[in-house]
Design brief:
Blueprint (H helix, E strand, L loop, with lengths): L1 E4 L2 E4 L1 E3 L7 E5 L10 H16 L2 E5 L5 H14 L4 H4 L10 E6 L2 E10 L4 H11 L5 H29 L5 H6 L1 E10 L9 E6 L5 E6 L5 E4 L5 E3 L6 E6 L12 H18 L4 H12 L9 E4 L6 E10 L23 H9 L8 H6 L2
Parallel strand pairs: 4-5
Antiparallel strand pairs: 1-2, 3-4, 5-13, 6-7, 7-8, 8-15, 9-14, 10-13, 10-15, 11-12, 11-14
Pfam families: 2OG-FeII_Oxy, DIOX_N
GO molecular function: 2-oxoglutarate-dependent dioxygenase activity; metal ion binding
Keywords: Dioxygenase, Iron, Metal-binding, Oxidoreductase
C-alpha cells in the first residue's frame, strides 16, 4: 500500500488475506535503527504513516530472541499459579498495575503489572512479592525482556517525533515517561460463559507494545469497521497509539496524570461502557490535532487454550496540548490545552452530549 505525505510516497508493507484485513509491517531490525541514516528516516516515515492510517503496526523486532520470548512466556504462566491470596498482595498506588481481573464484564481476564520493569530493583521487588523464596529465573528473564521492550518503545517515539519535525520534544517526552509492563492471562470460558477477554477499547496511555503467545484472539478494528484477527509470531510486536499520542508534557501533577490514565480503563469499563467508543475517538483527535488514529481493539477467546499476552504501556506525566508545530493554515488548532482529569470529570457528569463531549469541553 502506498501513502502520500508531504509529496512523498511511502510504501507500507501489509499483512492479511484480503484488501480490508491488513496491518502494516515495519522492519525494526538493527540496520534500520541508526538515527539519521537513510533507512532510519525511511522507517520513521513508515511508522508515522502507519499510525495515522491504522493507529497501529506490526514491528518486526529481533533483539528479543526466540529463546527469550519462550522463557518469558513460560514465566508468565507461572505468575498466575500462586493462590489469589498471594497475588492480591501485589498492590500499587496506580490502578491498572498490581494485580487485578475477574471483572463481571470481563471474567476471563486477569493481570499482574510491574512498574518500570526495566529497572532491576523494581523487578526484584516484584519477584520477592510473588515468590517470597525467590525466583531468579523469572527476575532475570523479565528484567531483560522489559529493557528490550523499552528500547523498542523509545525507538518508535524517536521516529515519530522525527517524522513530524518536532525532535525537540523527544527528550522531554522520554524524561517524563512512566512505564508499566502488564502480564495478562485470558482463561478458557466455561460452558454458557461469555467469551469476551477484553471489551472494545482504545488505550489511555501514550504508546502500547503487545507481545502474545501463539493463541489468537486479539482483534483490531480498521477505520472502515473491519475487525482484523491478529496472527501472533515470536518476532512480531503489535505497536498501538494510545489516545494521548503526539502531545508534549507540561510536567504538572505527574502522579495524578499517571493514575488517571491507567484508571480510566477500569472505571470506563465498569461504568461507561456504552459511551466508550465515542469518547475515545474524540480524545485522540484532540490530543493529536486530528492526525494520529487510536484503533479500537478487543480480545475474544474462541479456542480451548489459555491466552497469555505481555503489554508495555508508556504514560506521560502532565497536562496535554497539541504541539504548536502540528498547527498550520491547513491544520488549524482544534483543541485548547486541557487537563485529562478535568475532562474525565466532565464525562462523568455526562457533558452536553457524550458524542460531542471533547468538542464542547476544549474545542474551538
Amino acid at each position: 500500500m502506498c501513502i502520500e505525505r508531504n509529496n512523498e510516497r511511502h510504501e507500507l508493507n501489509i499483512m492479511g488475506s484480503d484488501a480490508q484485513s491488513k496491518l502494516p509491517i515495519v522492519d525494526f531490525r538493527e540496520e534500520n535503527l541508526t538515527p539519521g541514516t537513510k533507512s532510519w528516516v525511511s522507517t520513521s516515515n513508515l511508522v508515522r504513516c502507519a499510525l495515522e492510517s491504522y493507529g497501529c503496526f506490526i514491528a518486526v523486532y529481533d533483539k528479543i530472541t526466540f529463546e527469550q520470548h519462550n522463557e518469558v512466556f513460560k514465566s508468565a504462566k507461572e505468575l498466575f499459579d500462586p493462590p489469589v491470596e498471594t497475588k492480591v498482595k501485589h498492590i500499587s498506588n496506580f490502578a491498572g498495575s498490581g494485580y487485578g481481573g475477574n471483572y463481571p464484564i470481563m471474567p476471563l481476564f486477569e493481570y499482574v503489572g510491574i512498574e518500570n520493569g526495566a529497572n532491576l530493583e523494581a523487578t526484584k521487588n516484584f519477584t520477592s512479592i510473588m515468590w517470597p523464596d525467590g525466583n531468579d529465573c523469572f527476575c532475570g528473564s523479565a528484567h531483560s525482556y522489559c529493557k528490550l521492550l523499552l528500547e523498542l518503545d523509545q525507538a518508535v517515539m524517536q521516529m515519530v517525533v522525527n517524522s513530524y519535525g518536532v525532535q525537540k520534544y523527544y527528550n522531554p517526552l522520554i524524561q517524563s515517561s512512566f512505564y508499566l509492563t502488564r502480564f495478562m492471562k485470558y482463561r478458557v470460558p466455561e460452558e454458557n460463559e461469555i467469551n469476551v477477554g477484553l471489551i472494545p477499547h482504545t488505550d489511555k496511555n501514550f504508546l502500547t507494545i503487545i507481545d502474545t503467545n501463539h493463541v489468537r484472539g486479539l482483534e483490531i478494528e480498521t477505520r472502515d469497521g473491519e475487525w482484523i484477527d491478529y496472527k501472533p509470531s515470536p518476532t512480531n510486536y503489535l505497536v498501538m497509539a494510545g489516545e494521548p499520542m503526539m502531545v508534549r508534557a507540561l510536567f504538572l501533577s505527574s502522579s495524578l496524570s499517571v493514575y488517571i490514565n491507567i484508571q480510566t480503563q477500569i472505571f470506563i469499563y465498569n461504568k461507561y461502557c456504552t459511551n466508550i467508543l465515542n469518547i475515545n475517538v474524540l480524545l485522540c483527535k484532540a490530543w493529536s490535532n486530528g492526525r494520529i488514529h487510536a484503533a479500537l481493539h478487543r480480545v475474544v477467546i474462541r479456542g480451548e487454550e489459555e491466552k497469555y499476552s505481555i503489554g508495555n504501556f508508556s504514560f506521560i506525566n502532565g497536562m496535554l496540548q497539541v504541539p504548536e508545530e502540528l498547527v498550520d493554515g491547513e491544520n488549524p488548532l482544534k483543541f485548547k490545552p486541557f487537563s485529562h482529569p478535568a475532562f474525565l470529570e466532565y464525562c462523568k457528569e455526562g457533558g452536553p452530549t457524550m458524542e460531542n463531549a471533547i468538542k464542547t469541553f476544549c474545542g474551538f
